[in-house]
């Protein structure tokens, strides 16, 4: 039996067994990323789609995704590659590429305005080894690396990536342990710890999807933004007010179709509350 150390779940796996994420497996007496280099999605996106609004605005970035996730968000917009019953069929259907291939592809898209690679679509940190190996090559080419993540990884994983990641958009999906644990299958404390470290070494923007009846109260938004505003950089200076927050509108999908889209007025009202403590607040999906 071997223990996976990537996220708070610490799955204990027997030989040949996959972890909760569906992408890490015990093989040869160690836990390895079965999805290493297994690509399900590749697209040239505007940087604002990540979303990143204050990192090289107006540029494009080559977005790449694999399969698997260590959360269970019932409204997942990429469920076909994350955690649905069909997601893990991509183990056999995904195209296998090397870090060298992706780095060369990113460089080819420079003429189209691309600045590097974004690791996104599924949860990239469950296969952090491929992110690390590719990101190192991207830096050697003078380009940038973006990580779009749920922030549910242990700090040693983040430390391995620190030299290579230039920007992140991290989901801060809500601000209650109940919501993270019961609805998302996650751990709020782990995400807060991850964000607190990430802002010390790279550009970070946060996204909160407002789900009716779950995380849509004014009190929760005030608590969330008060915490964000208190975050510090690596020197101990409080920089939280300058961290961008994207407040996004929910639409029913996947396994959460029992409620309407978030009221646009509510999204705007919560964004105004966020602006009481944060300098850069954006609304999305409105």
User: In CATH terms, what is the fold-level topology?
Assistant: TIM Barrel
CATH superfamily: Aldolase class I
What about the largest sheet?
8 strands, mixed
- Low-confidence segments, ≥5 residues, pLDDT <50? none
Mean pLDDT: 96
Count of helical segments? 8
Describe the global form: globular
How are the SSEs ordered, and which strands pair?
Elements: E1 2-3, E2 12-13, E3 24-27, E4 30-33, E5 38-39, E6 41-46, E7 60-65, H1 90-93, E8 95-96, H2 99-108, E9 114-119, H3 128-140, E10 144-149, H4 155-161, E11 167-171, H5 177-183, H6 188-198, E12 203-210, H7 218-229, E13 245-249, H8 264-274, E14 281-284
Parallel strand pairs: 7-9, 9-10, 10-11, 11-12, 12-13, 13-14
Antiparallel strand pairs: 1-2, 3-4, 5-8, 6-7
Helix pairs in contact: 2-3, 7-8
Overall description:
By secondary structure, the chain is α/β, with parallel strands linked by helices. It has one domain (36-284): TIM Barrel (Alpha-Beta Barrel). The protein is 26% helix and 22% strand. The strands form four sheets. The chain has an eight-stranded mixed sheet with strand order 6-7-9-10-11-12-13-14. A two-stranded antiparallel sheet has the order 1-2. A two-stranded antiparallel sheet has the order 3-4. Helix 7 runs parallel beside helix 8.
């Amino acid at each position: 039996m071997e223990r996976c150390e990537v996220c708070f779940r610490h799955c204990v796996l027997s030989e040949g067994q996959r972890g909760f994420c569906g992408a890490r497996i015990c093989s040869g007496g160690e836990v390895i990323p079965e999805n290493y280099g297994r690509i399900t999605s590749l697209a040239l996106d505007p940087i604002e789609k990540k979303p990143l609004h204050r990192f090289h605005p107006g540029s494009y970035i080559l977005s790449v995704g694999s399969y698997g996730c260590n959360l269970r968000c019932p409204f997942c917009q990429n469920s076909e590659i994350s955690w649905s019953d069909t997601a893990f069929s991509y183990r056999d259907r995904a195209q296998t590429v090397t870090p060298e291939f992706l780095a060369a592809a990113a460089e080819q898209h420079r003429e189209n305005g691309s600045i590097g690679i974004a690791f996104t679509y599924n949860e990239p940190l469950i296969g952090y080894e491929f992110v690390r190996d590719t990101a190192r090559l991207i830096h050697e080419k003078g380009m940038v690396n973006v990580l779009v993540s749920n922030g549910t990884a242990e700090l040693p994983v983040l430390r391995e990536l620190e030299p290579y990641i230039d920007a992140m958009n991290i989901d801060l999906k809500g601000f209650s342990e109940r919501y993270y644990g019961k609805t998302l299958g996650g751990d709020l404390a782990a995400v807060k710890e991850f964000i607190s470290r990430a802002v010390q070494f790279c550009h970070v923007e946060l996204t909160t999807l407002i789900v009716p009846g779950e995380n849509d109260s004014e009190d929760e938004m005030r608590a969330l933004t008060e915490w964000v505003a208190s975050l510090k950089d690596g020197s101990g200076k409080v920089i939280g007010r300058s961290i961008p927050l994207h407040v996004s509108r929910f639409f029913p999908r996947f396994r959460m179709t029992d409620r309407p889209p978030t009221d646009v007025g509510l999204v705007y009202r919560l964004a105004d509350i966020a602006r009481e403590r944060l300098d850069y607040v954006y609304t999305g999906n409105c």
